[in-house]
Write a structure and sequence with these properties.
heterodimer; A: alpha/beta; 7-stranded mixed sheet; 13 helices; 39% helix; B: Sufe protein. Chain: A; 3-stranded antiparallel sheet; 3 strands
Chain lengths: 410, 144
């Protein structure tokens, strides 16, 4: 490796799990951030501190602990609002996951704005979490789903996408950054939706920690992401929606915290954002997400992006030189994710082999079975990077890949 | 090379993974089931012919998967062909105990068996499902 190029954010020390030895001797190389990111000390310590010193339920009591908990919960909402550059805190709904956010939109948007025969446009590269909630609408209510094709580069075929619109198209839902290819959504897809006045939901699970998100500049109507992929705790997700749409759509679940006034004949509902947050929310996890956002801001999103782009490019070029490796998607700009196969070796074998070398990668269909069928593969191996990775780790990975190939083709 | 990897991928596993035996569909068959690992997308179809003495006359599989799942299916068909169904069920129990690292004593399998080569899967808990997919399909076919 060319030392002059070494780029390192020097944050590995912030992540206690990265000092773990795999099988008691191998340094951990964590290349599975796209599945879930590791947690920095600040997130771990602050969530512990919440339980030890401040914990109570939110928005329900008047005692000191209730105030402290509510303050932390709502402060996290402010941090998320700034992180996404939403217009108002009312546009930030805490959910338990990004998946729940998509289900929430599918169900409540349908209820308010759709009927049998109306159409939803998705694409072939969507994660199951951006397919199945819409399948439910098809199965239960007779909604028609249309799927945009993809190009060999891994990008959505914009012309085909454009051709899918009819006067029955009511909503579009697309991934902002593909969890298989690492390709970013072409902005044209959003502007087409704007031109046709059709709301668009962006699945930001992979983009939130790896791109700078500005929902106003993007022009999306909904945006979801999860806490655990952005260095925060699992069990917390975010749904951003424009105040107009969220105000018009009905509540998703009923329960405590989402009501205005209740009598036995009926109820009125709370204002945004509480309207969509029935039941005790994942308050400590929300606080943890706020701390994770602080952490990313401290490093600087620009630095994170530059760092990850350099590693991704470096790894792509290294893998591209190897004749027994097949990379999925084009050589276009990709962010933090590379899917590949070793010819004639199943991705499970690659992952198990690398595991004993201390290297964690994902193997499988990545919750994208329709895409795997389109690619004509059963599964792929996937590398994904985070703030803690380095070029040296990529070098070690490449050496291990050669050993792996040798082992299985001996 | 790491011992764990060598235990997992013994020569016989790699061999059966590359060239699975009894690959195809029985003609005719009277029992069948699909195996599927939803976590990774691996899948297979198992067919077999059970005669009136409850003996597995023929058994084959098709499908796609990793070396572990293919080798396990391949070795299973070799082992079960010609066996009485009661014996096959004992082998099924032994095999699932063997690969899941259970302490239970094996009743019909021993270290001489080719299936014993899959014991190394116990060191990789996430791969146990790869090794048992074909076996669960077999068990399912008996229930249907």
């Amino acid at each position: 490796m060319d030392d002059s190029k070494t780029l390192n954010l020097n944050v590995r020390k912030d992540f206690p799990i990265l000092s773990k030895k795999i099988l008691e001797k191998k340094d951990l190389i964590y290349f599975d951030t796209a599945a879930s990111a590791q947690k920095p000390n600040t997130v771990i310590d602050e969530t512990n501190d919440f339980y030890k010193n401040h914990y109570s339920n939110v928005s329900r009591g008047v005692h000191t602990l209730s105030v402290e908990s509510t303050f932390r919960y709502e402060d996290a909402r402010k941090k998320v609002q700034k992180f996404l550059n939403a217009r108002s805190e009312n546009e930030i709904i805490f959910t338990k996951s990004a998946t729940e956010g998509i289900n929430l939109v599918a169900q409540t948007f349908y209820e308010k704005f759709m009927q049998k025969g109306d159409e939803v446009i998705l694409s072939l590269i969507e994660h199951h979490s951006n397919l199945i909630p819409w399948f439910f609408l098809r199965d239960k209510y007779g909604v028609v789903l249309k799927f945009a094709n993809i190009q060999p580069s891994g990008e959505i075929d914009i012309d085909h996408f454009n051709s899918l619109f009819t006067n029955k198209t009511k909503i579009v839902s697309l991934t902002h950054l593909s969890n298989v290819f690492g390709t970013e959504l072409n902005e044209k897809a959003i502007s087409i939706c704007k031109d046709k006045n059709v709301p668009i939901l962006l699945d930001g699970c992979q983009s939130a920690a790896h791109l700078k998100i500005d929902v106003q500049k993007l022009g999306c109507d909904f945006f979801v992401f999860s806490g655990h992929k952005t260095y925060g705790p699992a069990g917390i997700g975010v749904l951003y929606g424009t105040e107009n749409l969220l105000s018009e759509m009905p509540p998703y679940q009923g329960g405590g915290g989402m009501i205005g006034d209740v009598n036995l004949e009926g109820a009125s509902y709370a204002e945004l954002p509480a309207k969509y947050e029935a039941g005790t929310p994942p308050l400590v996890e929300a606080h943890g997400l706020g701390i994770a956002i602080d952490y990313m801001n401290k490093i600087g999103l620009d630095n994170i992006i530059e760092h990850e782009n350099e590693i991704t490019k470096y790894a792509f070029n290294k893998l591209n030189e190897i004749d027994f490796i097949e990379i999925h998607g084009g050589d276009n700009k990709r962010n933090s994710i590379i899917s590949f196969n070793i010819r004639n070796v199943h991705s499970h074998e690659v992952s198990s082999f690398l595991d004993v070398e201390g290297i964690a990668i994902r193997a499988g269909h990545h919750c994208c079975q329709p895409l795997m069928k389109h690619l004509g593969v059963n599964s792929t191996a996937r590398l994904s990077f985070g703030v803690y990775n380095s070029l040296e780790e990529v070098d070690k990975f490449v050496i291990a890949l050669h050993k792996c190939k040798e082992f299985f083709n001996k | 090379m790491n011992d764990l990897i060598n235990d997992l991928y013994q020569e016989i596993i790699l061999d059966h993974g590359r060239e699975p035996r009894n690959f195809g569909e029985c003609e005719p068959y009277n029992k069948s089931a699909d195996g599927h690992n939803p976590l990774c997308g691996d899948n297979l179809k198992l067919t077999f012919l059970l005669n009136d003495q409850n003996i597995i006359e023929d058994i084959k599989f098709t499908g796609e998967g990793c070396a572990i799942s293919l080798a396990s299916a391949s070795l299973m068909t070799e082992k079960l062909k010609g066996k009485k169904i009661e014996v096959a069920q004992e082998i099924f129990k032994d095999f699932t105990n063997l690969v899941s690292g259970s302490d239970e004593d094996l009743k019909v399998l021993n270290e001489e068996d080719s299936l014993y080569a899959l014991k190394g899967v116990g060191g990789f808990p996430m791969r146990v499902k790869c090794a048992t997919m074909a076996w669960h399909a077999f068990n399912q076919a008996l229930k249907d």
